Amino acid sequence: MPYNEAFPAMEYDSIYMERCIELAINGLGKTAPNPLVGSVIVHNNLIIGEGYHHRYGDHHAEVRAISIVRNRELLKDSTLYVSLEPCCHHGKTPPCTDLILESGIPRVVIGTTDPFDEVAGKGIAKLRSNGCDVKVGVLKDKCRALNKRFFTFHEKKRPYVILKWAETADGYIDTVRTPGSVNRPTWITSEKLRMLVHKWRTEEASIMVGTQTALKDNPMLNIRDWHGPSPIRLVTDRFLKLPGTLHLMDGSQPTVIFNEVKQEREGQLHYVRISFREKLPEQIMQYLYAEGIQSLLVEGGRQLLQSFIDDGLWDEARIFTGKQFFGNGVRAPEIIPSRPVSYIPVGTESLYLIYNA
């Protein structure tokens, strides 16, 4: 982009930070427990290097951006943009602050600070104390939203919770069925939307259903219509009545069974004892936080979904609405938006996004 004297410098900073965010999104579903981060290096208003964090344990965004700059002398007269505060501690990789300083980059523009205790302003302080001109807070809200899972986990000490269900035009999520019944309801949404849901699953660390959903639907809760990692499966089974013939019990992927009977591991199945006489969502949040699991997609039935809503332990709801009318059956969960609802038409169906601000 050619330099324009009439164009405010702060606008350039926003434009390059937007590019950082665009790059960072490419790592969605692959970097956890690390955050999504994008970085660009600009010399005379031209991008000479860019990169993003591809996957956990791999090079950080700043390292990738610096590594592709052909003329390293240009770094001494460049600005490095990064969506999240550079790390200053030794983890899977060396500190990014050290590389930035060694490269002689004089100016760093940061989207937002890192809430992780090992960083939390220390990276910014190190850069400044070594003579680097640091600007913080460019597109801060967008950079925080990019890492909503990471920030929720470190600030609220729990995973980011997404509720998902499909309901009919008259507000039902299911007909009245019993476990093992052959009377399965008409699909509320089209088969094409299943691909979108499976894509969502690759973006979250865990996925959950309740006992009745496990018995009635026998879901796999894996990835079949998309490519990517499958989330850890969670299910409630108070008295361990779920039969071993269910997909959830097949041991094909890590599965946590919350129950009141035992605490042990059997291959890929992890039995976790909790109290069903106390609030389940809070106990589940405590377990997931202790295990370092940063996000949860709840696809359960009405009872499980409503329990998270009633306890206020949710961050967003994704609700599909179809054209069918059931007339009666299982009512959809009741949720009160605390922010304006976003509406997205998807084919003949509708997707509503509700956030718990």
The strand order across the widest sheet is 11-12-10-9-8-13-6-14-17-16
What kind of sheet is the major sheet?
10 strands, mixed
Shape descriptor: elongated
Series of secondary-structure elements, N-terminal to C-terminal: HEEHEHEHEHHEEHEHEEEEHEHEEEE
- Count of helical segments? 10
**What are the low-pLDDT stretches, counting only 5+ consecutive residues below 50?**
1-7
- Rg over CA atoms, rounded to whole Å, is 23 Å
Distance between the termini: 37 Å
Query: How helical, in percent, are the residues?
Result: 25-40%
Average pLDDT taken over every residue: 91
Q: What structural class do you assign from the helix and strand content?
A: alpha/beta
Q: How many DSSP E strands?
A: 17
Q: Report strand %.
A: 15-25%
